[in-house]
Write a structure and sequence with these properties.
- It contains 8 helices and 15 strands.
- It is α/β, with parallel strands linked by helices.
- It has 2 domains: 223 residues, Ribonuclease Z/Hydroxyacylglutathione hydrolase-like (Metallo-beta-lactamase, Chain A); 57 residues, no CATH class.
- Strands 1-2-3-4-5-6-7 form a 7-stranded mixed sheet, with helices on one face. Strands 8-9-10-11-12-13 form a 6-stranded mixed sheet.
- The longest helix is centred in the C-terminal third of the chain and has 25 residues.
């Protein structure tokens, strides 16, 4: 089995970093869940991207400036945690996921939640910890759409896979590309919702790799990459997908049911409470690999479970 390439992540930003009119605001806990790094965009107006970084910083911003627009890269809760701090703003959300910003049922559908225990738990978590649903008005944006304020242009770059509407934001004049949850972290790519798409994620990695920028920003952990680090991170993400698939095929030397595969914890070596959250994500990600391997004829489903051919 091929070894994963080395990935030596740098530390997360310790303080806001400015790239012309684009400011990266570090998320708490190094931008780890339930936080993410945010962007503050300054032109004729002040805009915010993914308001889930630091409550004190964003509250001060809301009190000192009028934030007119908030852009959300995708529907996951750790990208909108502090949306309530901007009651006067218009919220721009991905067209493909617009319903999930207003309806718990739509969130559950995208996630693939059918277990009532999980649905009850997640519904209460979203309401209590993330103040779901986000504020209105909500305006869906389309892939390729552009928004301008002063000398700043925000271009929506479709980046499906993580979620159906997951989007990156390109600031061409500043040479900055915000990658959102193509976050280039050691864990690798995440595709643990029912609506996540492994093939689309791989296509996204290829397409993003063709975008030339000076600075690449992500929503979690290290947060800031130059071109060389960005390309190394993309290659690592691609290698992680291959590694997961190889380890799954090795596990299928003997027949395994999906629950048996989930119990092996091939994706998440360490689970936390509540365990059913990790069981769900593990199963969703494994099922995407299993579906692809079956389509390729590399795995078959037998009466005893899945088995490598």
């Amino acid at each position: 089995m091929a070894r994963l390439p080395e990935l030596c992540p740098g530390p997360p930003p310790a303080a806001p970093l400015q790239f012309g009119p684009v400011t990266l605001v570090p998320g708490r806990k190094g931008g780890r869940y339930p936080y993410c790094h945010s962007l503050v965009l300054t032109g004729e107006e002040t805009w915010v991207v993914d308001p889930a970084s630091d409550q004190d910083y964003l509250r001060t911003l809301a009190r000192s400036r009028r934030v007119t627009r908030v852009f959300i890269s995708h529907f996951h809760e750790d990208h909108l945690k502090y949306h309530h701090l901007f009651p006067e703003a218009t919220f721009h959300v991905p067209q493909a996921e617009a319903a999930a910003f207003a309806s718990l049922a739509a969130v559950f559908e995208l996630m693939g939640l059918t277990d009532r225990r999980f649905r009850d738990y997640w519904g209460q978590t979203l309401k209590k910890e993330f103040r779901f649903p986000p504020l209105n008005p909500l305006i869906p944006y389309a892939p390729g759409e552009r928004f301008q304020t002063g000398g700043l242009t925000l271009e929506v770059v479709p980046a499906a896979g993580h979620t159906p509407g997951h989007s990156c934001f390109h600031f061409p004049r500043q040479g900055v590309l915000y990658l959102a949850d193509v976050d280039l972290t050691p864990f690798g790519p995440w595709y643990g919702d029912l609506a996540s798409d492994l093939d689309a994620f791989e296509e996204t990695l290829v397409r993003l790799g063709r975008i030339q920028a000076c600075t690449y920003l992500t929503a979690h952990e290290q947060g800031v990459f130059d071109y060389q680090g960005f390309q190394a991170g993309l290659a690592y993400f691609q290698a992680v997908i291959r590694d997961r698939e190889e380890r799954l095929r090795a596990a299928l030397a003997v027949p395994q049911s999906l629950p048996q595969l989930v119990a092996r914890q091939l994706i998440y070596p360490k689970w936390k409470e509540p365990l059913f959250v990790y069981e769900h994500m593990e199963a969703q990600m494994l099922m995407k690999h299993l579906a692809r391997l079956r389509k390729q004829g590399a795995v078959e489903e037998t009466p005893l479970g899945y088995q490598a051919v």
